[in-house]
């Protein structure tokens, strides 16, 4: 967009700020991938909530972080959707990943 400045009367080119750009920046801030953890192979039984399963897994590893979970991906017959775990700190993710080798 072309903007006229009051002090000099000259026209200056400035990048226009659109709602789309603002949404993109907000999504980038909200979605910090370093705080995410993906768990594959966690069964999907209707009577057992996924957040409880993740909490038990973390307890087994000796951790009790604050987190939220959601299933990601498409529904496919015979396949289990991965679980996206969103943690508060990236350091927590690295700590959990270092302890994950004890799960095998």
| N- to C-terminal distance | 58 Å
Total helical elements:
3
Low-confidence stretches: 1-5
- Elements, N to C (H/E): EEHEHEEH
- Give the structural class: alpha+beta
Q: Enumerate the strands of the largest sheet in spatial order, edge to edge or round the barrel.
A: 3-5-4
Q: Sheet with the most strands?
A: 3 strands, antiparallel
Q: Percentage of helical residues?
A: 25-40%
Number of strands: 5
How confident is the prediction overall: mean pLDDT? 82
How much of the sequence lies in strands comes to 15-25%
Overall 3D form: globular
Radius of gyration: 22 Å
List keywords for this structure.
two-stranded antiparallel sheet, three-stranded antiparallel beta sheet, alpha+beta, 104 residues, 3 helices
Structure summarized in a few sentences:
The chain is of the alpha+beta class.
Explain what this protein looks like in three dimensions:
The chain has 104 residues and is an alpha+beta fold. Helix content is 32%, strand content 19%. It has three helices and five strands, in the order ββαβαββα. It has a three-stranded antiparallel beta sheet. The chain has a two-stranded antiparallel sheet with strand order 1-2. It is globular. Mean pLDDT is 82; it is low at 1-5.
Q: Topology, pairings included?
A:
Elements: E1 2-4, E2 11-13, H1 19-30, E3 36-39, H2 50-60, E4 67-71, E5 83-87, H3 90-99
Antiparallel strand pairs: 1-2, 3-5, 4-5
């Amino acid at each position: 967009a072309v903007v006229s400045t009051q002090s000099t009367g000259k026209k200056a080119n400035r990048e226009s700020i659109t709602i789309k750009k603002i949404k993109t920046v907000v999504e980038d801030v909200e979605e910090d991938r370093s705080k995410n953890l993906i768990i594959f192979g966690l069964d999907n039984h209707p009577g057992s909530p996924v957040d409880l399963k993740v909490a038990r897994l973390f307890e087994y590893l000796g951790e009790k972080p604050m987190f939220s979970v959601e299933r990601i991906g498409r529904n496919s017959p015979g396949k289990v959707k991965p679980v996206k775990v969103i943690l508060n700190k990236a350091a927590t993710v690295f700590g959990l990943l270092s302890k994950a080798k004890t799960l095998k």
